[in-house]
Design brief:
Elements: H1 15-18, E1 20-24, H2 26-29, H3 40-45, H4 47-52, E2 55-60, E3 64-65, E4 77-81, H5 88-100, E5 104-109, H6 119-124, E6 138-139, E7 151-152, E8 160-163, E9 168-171, H7 186-201, E10 206-209, E11 233-234, H8 236-239, H9 245-256, E12 263-267, H10 276-279, E13 288-290, H11 313-329, E14 335-336, H12 346-350, H13 357-370, E15 374-378, H14 399-410, H15 415-425, H16 462-467, H17 472-485, H18 487-491, E16 493-496, E17 504-511, E18 514-521, E19 527-528, E20 537-542, E21 551-552, E22 557-562
Parallel strand pairs: 1-2, 1-15, 2-5, 5-10, 7-11, 10-12, 12-13, 14-15
Antiparallel strand pairs: 3-4, 6-9, 8-9, 16-17, 17-18, 18-22, 19-21, 20-22
Helix pairs in contact: 7-9, 13-17, 14-15
This protein binds alpha-D-glucopyranose and magnesium ion.
Length: 564
């Protein structure tokens, strides 16, 4: 070894820190065979668009064999592809075709629960003493025969389901069709590790770990203080982030990830900036976690879609500031996301109102693609999609939407109030088919789409937006190029500026001598700021023409580059 110091590589970041991630809701992306359901071959046929967008990691929602009680989050067999989506050969082709374009496929690992049609569960429910009898969470009824505790599942109703055969209840954090695995059993931990290993061997680039904060249950199952008129208590407050959960996840990380270049991102409801050092980074269990602080900013109680709260831009900015500082402090990394398949469309979520939707979409795009961290774009977000507002609950598909609606009526809200909640929060808004062109069914399928195409497809579709220089899509393409051209946008430090401004989100990203200042007006009126912040800056991007230092037009976003 020579004593010389190795030249610093251009960036010490890993591949997944430098790229843009994109979530595909497989059922709704592109249908290749006319059955009305998106599929793997549909995705393979459209990879070039993702390449153009600068995407290097594609997270697929679960496409394993599943009875689809929760649209695939109920997995019957982790080792096979659902026939509606294709075959394992199609998956191999997708992984290879993506790799040829420098795109890695990211699988969704749902390990808190399986489907009730999974063979593991079918065996477990046979008796109290079969080989897998302890693979799920079984408990005896209370003396009066009722459920072991008063816990309410996340989708509504008791979290316990009685099984006649065993004469016992099993626990389901989500639907009765989604029985929870018993991670306390080492055989279960081995089984899920094997599943992950199988997919690592297939060449995937990472894993999104579904509902991961629920895997460890408390030692003793006890009733909680009821939090609603149904006499139940939300299971989240009783089982999320139970002590010892990190031991399981450290074990998982050591056996699955070591020696690979994959990344992991945990869906971590209940984890906040203050806990991040235990969850991400060198001493953590994942590379990144999706926190819920931002998406729940207007929702004080996840059970109840009818009660929302007003939030301030201060809180919105604090989320980024605190989480970025905590993730950095832990040596971890931050996943930037405004939408996913469980959330409202961000335009309606964070910038509600009647303002120009294209302007609102661009404002949020600016935040998403210039914040420090790996941006996760939800399919359709780059096309500026908004929430659906179907008139009747029967028009909706999502089981959680239906259950939230029932819960609201049970709590005494009116039909209209319950539907308002649905219009605002339904998960179906993020799940409507991708609108490719203005032809029938928006070019998504030649058959009948499994979920209706949103009627605005004649205007807001990929083809027409591609042709329109002022579209949200072209803005994403421009910003993505800018992000790749300016290292400070990937690697640079983040610093919030104008912390007292009530209307503007503003920050700098800097690396060495390079520095950009990002300013986004979150209101539908003009917003003023001290032009001194950008006095030496040259405008390199603006969503309105003729930008003027010191003032932003409604929803205007601007990027200034500091001149050395
Ligand atoms: C996660 C998923 C959601 C699913 C639930 C149960 O929250 O993102 O879509 O319904 O877990 O698996
Ligand atoms: Mg199909």
């Amino acid at each position: 070894m020579s004593g010389s110091v190795e030249p610093q590589s251009e960036s010490a970041l890993k591949w997944w820190q430098k790229t843009i991630a994109y979530e595909i809701y497989v059922k709704s992306y592109k249908d290749s065979d006319g059955d009305g359901t998106g599929d793997l071959n549909g995705i393979t046929s459209e990879l070039d668009h993702l390449k153009e967008l600068g995407v290097g990691a594609v997270w697929l929602t679960p496409c394993y064999a599943s009875p689809q009680a929760d649209n695939g989050y109920d997995i019957a067999d982790y080792y096979s592809i659902d026939p509606a989506y294709g075959t394992m050969e199609d998956m191999d082709t997708l992984i290879a075709e993506a790799k040829a374009r420098d795109i890695r496929i990211v699988m969704d690992l749902v390990f808190n629960h399986t489907s009730n049609e999974n063979e593991w569960f079918i065996e477990s429910r046979q008796s109290k003493d079969n080989d897998k009898s302890d693979w799920y969470i079984w408990a005896d009824p209370k003396e009066d025969g009722s459920a072991p505790t008063n816990w309410r599942s996340i989708f509504g109703g008791s979290a316990w389901e009685f099984d006649e055969g065993r004469g016992q209840y099993y626990l389901h954090t989500f639907l009765p069709e989604q029985p929870d695995l018993n991670w306390a059993n080492p055989e279960v931990r081995k089984a899920v590790t094997d599943v992950a290993g199988f997919w690592v061997d297939k060449g995937v680039g990472g894993f999104r770990m579904d509902a991961i904060t629920y895997i460890k249950k408390p030692e003793i199952f006890a009733d909680g203080e009821p939090d609603a008129g149904d006499g139940m208590v939300g299971i989240h407050s009783m089982t999320a982030n139970t002590d010892g959960i990190l031991d399981y996840l450290h074990e998982f990380k050591a056996s699955v990830q070591e020696g690979t270049d994959i990344f992991t991102v945990g869906e971590a409801n209940g984890v906040s900036a203050a806990d991040l050092d235990k969850w991400v980074g060198d001493d953590g269990v994942f590379d990144m976690v999706f926190e819920f602080g931002l998406v729940n900013i207007d929702l004080p109680d996840e059970n109840n879609w009818c009660e929302t709260r007003d939030w301030s831009l201060q809180e919105f900015r604090s989320f980024f500031k605190d989480s970025l500082a905590a993730a950095d402090g832990a040596g971890g990394w931050f996943p930037v996301f405004l939408e996913n398949h469980d959330q409202p469309r961000s335009i309606d979520h964070y910038l509600p109102g009647n303002g120009d939707r294209t302007a609102r979409g661009k404002a949020l795009a600016t935040l998403l693609l210039t914040m420090r961290g790996t941006p996760f774009i939800m399919q359709g977000e780059e096309l500026g999609y908004v929430n659906v507002d179907w008139p009747s609950i029967d028009d909706y598909n999502d089981i959680s939407t239906k259950n939230h609606y029932e819960f609201a009526l049970g709590e005494g809200y009116s039909e209209e109030e319950a539907m308002d909640g649905v219009h605002h929060f339904s998960r179906d808004s993020a799940r409507t088919p991708v609108q490719w062109d203005a032809s029938e069914n928006a070019g998504f399928t030649t058959g009948k789409p499994w979920l209706p195409v949103y009627p605005d497809y004649t205007v807001y579709n990929r083809e027409s937006e591609k042709a329109d220089p002022d579209s949200v899509l072209n803005f994403y393409l421009t910003l993505s190029k800018l992000r790749r051209a300016l290292p400070e946008l990937t690697d640079g430090d983040y610093e919030e500026i104008m912390p007292d401004n009530q209307n503007i989100v503003a920050y700098t990203r800097s690396k060495g001598n390079a520095k950009v200042t990002v300013l986004i007006n979150f209101t539908d009126g003009e917003a003023e700021y001290d032009p001194g912040y950008v006095k030496d800056g040259k405008c390199i991007m603006s969503t309105c023409s003729g930008e003027k230092k010191g003032i932003l037009r409604p929803y205007e976003a601007v990027i200034y580059e500091e001149q050395p």
